[in-house]
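Notes from the pairing session

We agreed to fold both candidates in a single pass and log them together. This is the raw record for the first candidate, unedited. Please don't reformat it; downstream parsing expects exactly this layout.

Candidate A
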Amino acid sequence: MREKREKYHHALKALAIRQKKIHIVGQPHLKIEGTLVYLDVEGLPDRDFYYLIGVRIKTHQSVVERSFWASDAEGDKGNLD
């Protein structure tokens, strides 16, 4: 890896600071082990109302997907369809 060192990108660092984001030069290689869990929550946080929660769990053997839907503000308190 020492031979393939990237040069420092001052413009990219400035952009990252302005946007408050992390920018990666190149293709990151990640080794993820274990059970993958994806979570999606949709709602109106300013009203403290979350109408859809979706979860996807992937193991070596299977994929399980579940979604929980609230039709109204009362439904998000535990009476999910």
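Candidate B (folded immediately after A)
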Amino acid sequence: MKIKALFLALTLITISVAAQTPALPDTPAAKQFAAWLEAFNSGDRATMLAFQQKNNPSRADRIDSTMGFRAQTGGFEFKKAGESTATKFTGIVKERNSDQFAQFTIEVEATEPHKIVDLNLGAIPTPTEFAPARMSQPDALAALRAQMEKSTAEDKFAGAAMVVKDGKPVFSAAYGLADREKKTPDKVSTQFRIGSMNKMFTATATLQLVQAGKLQLTDTIGKILTDYPNADVASKVTIHHLLTHTGGTGDIFGPEFETHRRELKTLQDYVKLYGKRGLEFEPGSKWEYSNYGFLLLGVIVEKVSGQSYYDYVAEHIFKPAGMTATASLSEDEVVPSRSIGYTKFDGSADWKPNTDTLPYRGTSAGGGYSTVEDLTRFAAALQGHKLLDAKHTELLTTGKVETPRGGDKYAYGFFDHKVAGVRCFGHGGGAPGMNGELEICPELGYVIAVLANLDPPAAQRMAEFVGSRLPVH
């Protein structure tokens, strides 16, 4: 009887799973997608390479990055079909390793053997119909701890997390190693590099100067930096454009940065290297992430305040917020509690220190370091109007420009978006060997801070995991 009962149960489970898996259209495009998904999900390099050589030869030379992406995602589950024609198929998939959803588009040739012309996947917010169930606070935090333990055991997470409810910490934990050679464990007090999370501090500093009447959002770069090398940039790009990544000022990373990485010691050094180049598009015409734009905001903060960027944020942001472990000291200075970042972005199978990728020093665009405790203190100071008054805090954190990631808007140095249907704002940071995420969710009353000394999306995925499960009330 027990065997029959077990067989019946397994049969019902199989039927249930089959019922939940949507059918694919009977078209060349959908069939190619199904074949790609099977090869990708196999996790076998030879299988994936053979598929690419036969069906998508332009991608065959990128097999290493493809397999790296497979390791990161764990493969995909097909969740929903979208547009479907003979040569084009769109839909939604979900990562096996996380709650992350993506929208895909595949286009194939009209004639046999229908080779792939284009295949794109882009991250999207979790569709409401697929949102995980909200839990009680104890259950959600227990699930977070279990997820951190599982990911650490799989060598996919090393870092710290803190969750604060209505100003009171309700969860803090750290897993993995801050220094693999010395076997030094990560702690809640470990200082992790935070990448672009610095942009929140830079934007707050800029709005402080606006609130004080020393700067206007409509001011152009040239009004403040009268000797800026490119007249077109100086006359057209405003503070608002810089704060929203709509200025067309471009990035700072690439061959030039790699050549001069250790020589770029001050914010002015970046202006000397990049300041003569022109606009990439007409300011205000579109959104395009610009690290250089936030570098310029740091230069503007220095010009208007009369202080170095580092001294200004230390005095006007970190000190009033009670942030005692956040700074941007240079990489050649000893910071005892600063973790070593580990990366696989070079295609290696094993984690390697990210030392050869680091700038001389963090800037107003990113690259400093902090702790999960300090990030929650920053959130509390912001929400408690210790840094800006209510009007300017709302101005800082309310979305203004649509971004390519559907549903996300960019405010001033903050993303304003929905986490499983609930509004949150904050910013992440990611680069080889570092990842961080701060989510401030007023509707939930929660603040979530996660930092990791591994490649993205180690911390981001953990923040999304708990943010989508915490109770609404």
